[in-house]
Records
---
Amino acid sequence: MARKRLIEEGVRSQPRVRGAAKEDSSLDDVRVIKHTMDDPMNGRLRRSGFSRRTLLQAAAAAMTVPVIARATNAFAQDKLAGSGEVVVFSNGGSFTQGLRKYVFEPFTKTTGITVVDVTADFAEPQVKAMNQVGRVDWDTALIQGALYPAMHEAGMFEPIDYSLWDAESLEGTPQVLRLKYAVPVFGSAQLLAYDERVFGKNGPTSWSDFWNVKAFPGPRGLYAPVPKHNLEFALLADGMSKSDLWPLSDDKVDRALKKLDEIKPYVSKWWTAGGEPPQLLINREVVMSSCPDGRAIVAIRQGAPIRMVWDGAHVNYTYWTVLKGGPNNKNAQRLIAYVNRAAIAAGFTQGTGYPGPNVNQLRYLPSDLAPLLSIYPENASKVVHEDSAWLGAKRPDGKTNLDRIQERWLQWRAQ
Amino acid sequence: MAGTVIFPTSKVASESTRSQSARPTAWAWLLLPGSVFLTVLFIVPLGGLLLLSLGVPDWTLANFVRIGDNPAYLAVLRTTLEISLSVTALAFVLSYPIAYALTTGGRMMRAFLLTAVVLPYFTSVLARTFAWTILLGRGGVVNDILLRFGLISQPVSLLYNRFGVIIGMTHIIMPLMILPMYTVMSSIDQKLLRAARANGASPLVAFLTIFLPLSLPGVIAGVLLAFIYCLGSYITPALLGGVSDLTITMEISSQVVEQLNWNFAAALSIVLLAAVLVILWVGSRFFPIEQLLGVSDGKAGSETAARHQIGTQWLMRVGSAANALDRWLPSLGGRGVPILASSLAVLLLLPVVIVAYLSFSASSYFVFPAPGYSLHNYQAYFGDALWVRATFASIRVALMAAAMATVLGGMLAFGLSRGRIRGRGAMIALVLSPIILPTVVVAVATYFVLARVGLQGTEFGLALGHTVHAIPFVVVIVIANLRDLNPTYERAARSLGAGPLATFRTIIAPLVMPSLIVAAFFAFLTSFDDVVYVLFLGIGKLTTLPMRMWEGIKQDISPTISAVATLQMMFAAIVIVLSVLLGRRKTT
């Protein structure tokens, strides 16, 4: 979550909480209409005012990090120093706001390179279009793991220049993640989130529990547009071990869909946008749901009564790429090297809610944020990594494996 | 003024159509600018799309074969059509009384109804979805009432299923249905109704035999636009629907942006376009779409005349039957329709009011009831330069697009209506195609055209794309009204010595102005509402207001969007109320 927002929340929360308490009585008549959620929710939000203040202190402590970095740079010219600009894609919203504050602004101060940021919902179609037209307006874009192989094959990217990286960055980023033409921006997880007002501390702990409607009754939510997460969850619930999940061959897809048939009647909401699951949980439309980790973390840190279950969470990477034919490729390489410095990586995580791959950043993260992240060792040992290369690989009939499971999913949904 | 055209003189009218149809009139020149514009910005990209679906350079039918291989695609197409038809039908039933009350009601009534109809369009999709959960959710108001009265024993599912999709979509397409009907209805000469009453027709009969047939061009225009709009919607079904409420646009969109299978997406789009054009063509066999819109191909003249006579006889029979029936019906003293329309308007406003209420909530989520009140959502909007900049960018682009679309579309409408050129049916189909095809596909195709001339990432380039999308709305709305523009007025003016320009200024312009205003309004809205063209044509450098709002849904769970929506609604409401009040003062 963006530090800027943390500070604003912290500053604002006090008068707002007082105002809320004052107006509680005048609201009674409105309450009669709908009485389901207000009390526990209010209590929770009010309590969160205090936890926010402690958060604020932690954030303030972390804030000193870029300052130190800047101070040292004043003495020695940074090896990433350059000139001109770099056109950088990001996904917009608070994600981009966080990036600007924690990465782009310090980057400009350190290197003298101006960041022109461009935002959109998705980068991939635009990158493909620019490449086809032969007019590449961006330098770097974030590409989803499953789409990367085909785009790489079509020659859209430049190799990553790891010679610009600090030794510490290389050491903290596992070798297997450092691809020749791409390196992870962040890992995002889809995990089980539940309403602690319903289950208290004895909530579901695995995907088997998600399927167990007797022990954990109540409506559920699952992601509708893409099946890869749901198939994985179903197989885990059916007793398959994590190491056997990938690749998602046809027989496993059959087995998973059969398992999904079981839970289908209990899924009251098939969500689409990442902001939906926390909202559905808060409004008691569902008691548990699959949920993007970033959205759950923001909600939890704002005081929402939501708990995350890391066991069996689906993790996949989004990649930094340098676009072939882009106007400032060299500066793009510098930015990618810069963002993977541990201190900056920690800023990235705080700013966007999604952790980059350099585990050394854990040293710089506030102690109450780190345990919520997928790279926190205890969580990292429980997650399942998607086999993006397999998803993006072509089958004998010309379709990718991703296309194949997508078609099976469409069929399952339409029936 | 319009009464002379439909049945009593239909034979004469169609004969004159036939005799003059051999040769295009001077009006046909008006088709030129719009046609050139659409050729460059739509037909060329459409051609590219067709080639893409055929896998050029390796010519193949594989993409079409793949659609046939998996029954799911046709099932999804069927679901799309089912949803679109149900929504259009429901919206029509609800819209007609409102449009009628708008036409016949006083100015307060008009201001209220117009506001109620138009505001839902401005509520942001996520805020609106949440408003629906407050009303229809598991713990929502409706379930609460039903439970309390013991009508049900546990909450019923009113959302996240087909029912939710139909309610949610009907709510937002009603302006599209009502405004074209309203512009046509307000040009119906009320003296005709009085004449019918004087000759012994009951109010019901006068309505059925006079008003209803004369309002048909507006009905067709509204139904057509609403139906096509439904085909293209995918965000509302995704947010309010169940697992199997898949629309073909959702699938095409996912093929384009999430899987990058453009060849296959192009093939799916071509199948959709073909299916819709066939439906419209079949529809036009039973329901004379072109004729009612005021354009009929000359060769069909005698056939339509014959159909008209049958229609007239049928209408007379309906009239006498209704006259007999009317004696047995209870009379509401003429208040029935206004009461019905007002209650429908209140229902339309419910979600809108909830969104406005939530915008003042102190909570950092959508929570109902609000735990306290605060202006923090408004502070977040005004305090963020990006929000404000996005707002102005949206307004600039929408103004450019509305101006271009109104001028080009208005000319196309005149040319189509009066140019008497051959193949007008085909031309209408072509003009409609940009909104039949999924926006995402047209947007990719348009990007390739704009990028060749360096207009990608500019506000003007984006406005060009939006104009292509807005022209169909303008053409359909204006054409439905030209149907009733009696050329004898112009001939009278000309014979009295007025030049063509003076005739246009004094006769035509005032008569078509209401429809042009409504058309411009929709052109503005289609641009102002877009989140898809901007994704490609803006190449990330342009940020518009809806794009910011959509980011808010995808990335955040911040209720700032409810404040943005409320500000938009306030602005729209002020414009509507002022225009209704001022408009009336001028005429009195």
Note: Residues 60-187+317-380 of chain A form a domain with the D-Maltodextrin-Binding Protein; domain 2 fold (CATH 3.40.190.10).
---
Amino acid sequence: MNRLQALYATTIGKKFIAAITGIILFGFILGHVAGNLKVFTGATADGIPHIDEYAHFLKIAGAPLVPEQFVLWSARSVLLISLILHMTVVIQLALISAEARPISYVKSKKRAASLPALWMMFSGLLILGFVIFHILHFTTGTIVIGEFNHGFVYNNLESSFSNPLVGIGYILVMLVLGFHLNHGIWSLFQTLGLDNPDRNKFLRLTATGLTIAIIAGFISIPLAFMTGAMPDPVSYPHELLTGHR
Amino acid sequence: MKISLHVWRQSSRDDRGGMKEYQLDDISPEMSFLEMMDCLNEQLTQNGEEPVAFDHDCREGVCGMCSMVINGEAHGPKAETTTCQLYMRHFEDGAQIYIEPWRSSAFPVIKDLVVDRSAFDRIIQAGGFISNHSGPKPEPNSIPIEPEIAEQALDAATCIGCGACVAACPNGSAMLFTAAKASHLGLLPQGQTERYSRAKTMVNQMEEEGFGSCRNYAECEAQCPKGISIAFIGQLNSDYLKASLVEPVDRRGEMHSQ
């Protein structure tokens, strides 16, 4: 514990935490996009879309070994803690850096710093706003656009993304997420001291490749609904999915 | 050639300071940037004004004294060049040239363009010593070193400690300097004994001096007059994390079985 405290006191330690929590949050994004793609795999013979089934699985994962929603809330807790730590250290680092240059240059020119790298705080803030909106929109159903029914994921997606403004909004935020990931994924390797000239190109290409794949996956969903490429939702009784009467 | 200079003037540490404009009408393109500064100071002296204070020493790119941010870039527009190696032919006739001191709370301005860089000295001091044989000169091949590693250590050792990395970093971080100094010893067999404790003490001193945090922009590498690579920052991150998390603190403490 003393070691972690001493490490946390330094900027390198805070960056270490930003990198580790970044990996956790990136892991979530990877799982989220993979799960989302189930929207394209169709429906069961009963007419239940695979994505609805998957969403239900997330709720009951681990049961009956652990109570329903236990795994779900464990994962959510880890993600929430990671997100809070990620933001806390980044804000602390930004304050330290602001103090390190009290007077700014009259003229300032960048040779190497990329715009996505310079705008990480901004893209991060936008993503935070989006995550809050996204949870209120598709998880809790507090913000209703079109129609919302708990558990009927496919219906909810179709109903929201048939509004082109929502679809375009989601797509734009995903592009911002892409910029954040493109710098962040590479940057965490450097922060953890795992990058060197031998692997630099590989790591940067991997970061960009993963980013493009993830963002393409996310964007494909609103795009598919907006262009009308997706089959119309079929109504089915929810008991079929949950088994509850 | 004619140029307009915008120079940061600050009479003392406590003075607020500000940019001041000067006109120079008879500048030869063959002059070095510092010779142009000398011309400016002659002109100022003749007009009874206070000359501009600026640091300079060897004027051949090895001492690391000439610290100026020229048009927003540390050591001016040419890559891997110190201010003293910059020539007026690198500017256009009629150019507007902005000259500012290194901007960092760890490098307080003493006067005009002169800053106090003793923070760097304290980081080097914090690195301490290397445990090395100090008798008669040893046989040169008694310590085998892979040539690639020797070259890499030399790359780190080319750091002249000018502070351009801090000046260029959008966050005012001194990671490139500290990494170069820690790595050129950490890479060589002679520096292994204190490798991890050195990484720790140097980073801790760097933190204490009030430098900003590294954000992996690589702006330091791009503006470093010696082109020192951010690979050394990765190396320092690795050494520091290992020193903090992996290396045993209590090597001789008690242990029990169960």
Note: Chain B has eight helices and seven strands.
